[in-house]
Amino acid sequence: MELSQWHTRLHEHFKQLCAQRQSHPAKPPVFALEHGLSASEVQEIRQSLQTHIKRAVPSDSHRLPWIVYATELGYGYEGDEYWQTFEQDTPGWQTYGDRHWIKRVFMAFHKQYCAARPTGEWAEHFSIIAWPIHNAILPQYLQTHLAKLLYDNKYAITGPLLRDS
Fold it and tell me: In terms of Cα–Cα distance, which of 117, 149, 89, 94 is closest to 30?
């Protein structure tokens, strides 16, 4: 499938998710990790983007595949260097890529598809990588820490506490 076709497919998917979330009383955000693609489809997008970036700048006409790609890398983030990993996995990015473009397309994603927006001090300090990492919901390396924290505090997490924002 071509990148523009992936973009169209993802547009329909995220548009539908946004509509579903907007009808919910709490209006929870959409996360880019909720792309609904199989591992092989993500790999196909990855290969298409890697081929494209070797010869041209990223295009707004396929910004959603880039958002999925950046978010998948955010999911694998281990607390070190996001951009080093991104550039290593994306030959041609240093020549044709633009970190600020990534931030702009995530901001547009937020507006168009009711998507999650990173907030807080960390998001302000790391204002670009915060978008793909936040849209990854929780990077893999933090999941065991969260599970342990929840287990260690299982008796402190009560119904009244959960209802109190």
Answer: 117
pLDDT tens for each residue of 108-140: 999 999 999 998 898 898 888 889 988 886 554
Q: Please classify residue 58 by burial: count the beta carbons closer than 10 Å to its beta carbon, then call 0-12 exposed, 13-18 middle and 19+ buried.
A: buried
CA–CA separation, 127 and 131 (whole Å): 7
Tokens 């598809």, residue located: 113
CA dihedral 88, 91, 95, 99 (to 10 degrees): -50
Closest by CA position to 64, among listed 37, 84, 100? 37
Report the Cα–Cα distance between both ends of the chain, in Å, rounded. 44
pLDDT over 70 (residue 11): yes
Does the CA dihedral 113-75-84-126 come out positive or negative?
positive
- Alpha-carbon gap, residue 50 to 15, rounded angstroms: 26
pTM above 0.90, yes or no: no
Virtual CA dihedral for 133, 112, 96, 125, nearest 10 degrees?
-40
Residue 6: is it exposed, middle or buried by C-beta count within 10 angstroms (0-12/13-18/19+)? Answer: buried
Neighbours of 85 (CB within 10 A): 15
Look up residue 26 and give its DSSP letter.
T
